[in-house]
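Notes to self, site-specific DNA-methyltransferase (adenine-specific):
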Amino acid sequence: MQSTIPQSGPVRAAQPRIIPPIKIQGIKSKLVPFIRENARWDGKGRWFEPFLGSGVVLFNIQPGRAAASDHNPHIAGFYQGISRGTITHHAVRRYLEKEGQRLAKEGGAYYYEIRDRFNSSHDPLDFLFLNRAGFNGLVRFNSKGGYNTPFCKKPGRFSKAYITKIVNQVYAVERLIRDNKWCFETADWRGALEGMRDNDFAYLDPPYYGRHANYYDTWSESDMADLAGFLIDRGTRFALSLWYENKYRRNDTIDRYFSGFAIHKHEHFYHLGSTENLRNSMVEALITG
Ligand SMILES: C[S@@+](CC[C@H](N)C(=O)[O-])C[C@H]1O[C@@H](n2cnc3c(N)ncnc32)[C@H](O)[C@@H]1O
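result:
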């Protein structure tokens, strides 16, 4: 029988919802309640999340013990920095005030200067800056692994209020990391899941299959086959987020690889433009085993 994530004990309800400082395409902010309701985890053991992305699921599910990872070293590195205390909300404020002022004075050219600097030094605070000043929260890397998201011009980009919002997001994550036993790693999902033991649970959110891919976001049918094979061979307990269908197509890999598992569906709407007839729906799936 399906049990839901308990609201007390190792997994606590998160009120209000935690918004992560890093944004990424495919972020599951709106799906956290659906994931929380349908993931069949008893709260024992560790929570493994090898496709961490922004971290929004981890930060809102709040397991007591977690192994969080992503093969994008800049994502894992940012949260590792918070864990180790090399990135603090104070440091983020100082950094954003300084760099935000220069951006206001020098405009888009300064964004591209920081982007070049980041592509040679990989400073996690530059990553945050680019993430929050770049186009639509898009994290995109070119074929050589260089960050190539364009600038998103917006008046008062790093206003006082915007900086405070980001600083508060970093502070919330700092406190969660301090209060829980979480580790962050740069790893491919295969390596990350090797460490799983009997009571552990994996929440999996790979890149969208069949969508436009970039350097850290490629996901092929053979990746899907490997993941399904791994879960079945090991008898891993898991919840896997996949898109199920939209107006035009259905994700046929679900039937091919996960037909024997419970499939929970959730429809949500998004706007492509300003008018009601540009409203599109997407059905998301959570596969549990
Ligand atoms: C759909 S996003 C995850 C979004 C995340 N759940 C959130 O709500 O923000 C997929 C993530 O998987 C990572 N990724 C892609 N391929 C990977 C692989 N082979 N191993 C580990 N992580 C991978 C990407 O860097 C990206 O951060």
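- The chain has two domains: 29-71+187-288, 89-170.
- Strands lie at 47-49, 65-70, 181-186, 201-204, 237-246, 262-271, 279-288.
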